[in-house]
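Our consortium's second objective concerns turning raw sequence data into structural hypotheses that experimental partners can test. To show how far this objective has progressed, the report includes one record in full. It was chosen at random from the queue rather than selected for favorable results. The single chain below, 391 residues long, was entered without modification.
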Amino acid sequence: MKIDFKSPKKYLLPLNIITFNLCRLWPFRKKTLWVFGAREGHQFEDNSKYMFLHVLKNHPNIHAVWLTNEPKVVDDMRKQGYEAYRNGTLKGKWMQLRAGASFYTNGLMDFGFIPLVAGSKIVALWHGMGFKLIYNGKLHGTPLKLKRMLDHFFSWTYRNITIATSKFTVEWLNDCFTLKNSGFRITGQPRNDILFKIDRKAILNSIGIDDRKKVIIYMPTYRSNNLGKDAMSKIVKDLYYSDKLSNELEKENAVLITKLHPLTPHINLPNRKNFVILDYANVSSNQELMGACDELITDYSSCFIDFALLDRPIFFYVPDEDSFIKKSEDVDKVFFSLCDLNKSTTPEELALLLSKSDNKVAEATNKIFEDGSLKGTNYSENVYKTIIKEL
């Protein structure tokens, strides 16, 4: 396992071991001050964003503060009337030291390279439920034992409370982060509340899509360079130039939106009336965009787990299945059982699936990833009640 000792996460490790454990002894915390961060401190997004907005709107007893590394995020949020600070400022550090609860999506990095939130209730909202083995789940033998030993002193994914959506996701999270004593709570993900509350017309019109059309969104995961520098570009171009797929879209009065992963380079193809390509920067919220779409096409991305809550058709397009599985993280067998329900490997096969859309993938996915106790509930409020009880 290659270790980049030039990364601040590595060379600041000794300092973080000291500060993290000292902060756990710091007694001056306020239970009603909650701080939120996301995407390693770079964005106002994901589960933390929707939890933050829910608390502000519904629970004025809580002092909610957003923390980030980006001056632009601070400026934009303050213009909207929200309280936000940079992690590296004195005010940002003070908010961390005073917080009673801290919420993150990607880890303690959401609060900067030297996080000061230990001692508060640290809540891992995470950035999606999945089926790929990541972090500790990729390690075995001696490396795993060493990592677990280090985690006792400091871990970038340390948490006191871990939210989950089902018994399966509890097991998955435990495999990935070794969380036997973390305090799992099956609450649902705050970001998924918005799926049912969007203004479809406004969202589609904002990206130039006619809301009278059937809208199919294609959300492929990232292809690393070991799969080929132009791997994703080739896959998208095969779809773009497929006459059979284009004809099916015309027949259904549909438009296919290809929403690229944030790490995927721009694909230089002109948009046309039934095929639109969106880079990450073109979309303000993945969840809101998904909520506005009628059908989803994906591959190895966990976005289908969220989309399934809408009980709408889901299709898998996996033209590079063998090479991707061979060169990526280990994938749980549950993925293959779901993928096989509506799988295609060529544009022609995909076109045929689209002509016979059904909800069988959504139904099967919800049985695995959505606990029955969550049906009809507000996920953000579930998290709020959990934290209040813990505090």
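The partners drew two points from this record. The chain has a mean pLDDT of 93. The radius of gyration is 21 Å. Both points have been shared with the crystallography group to help prioritize constructs.
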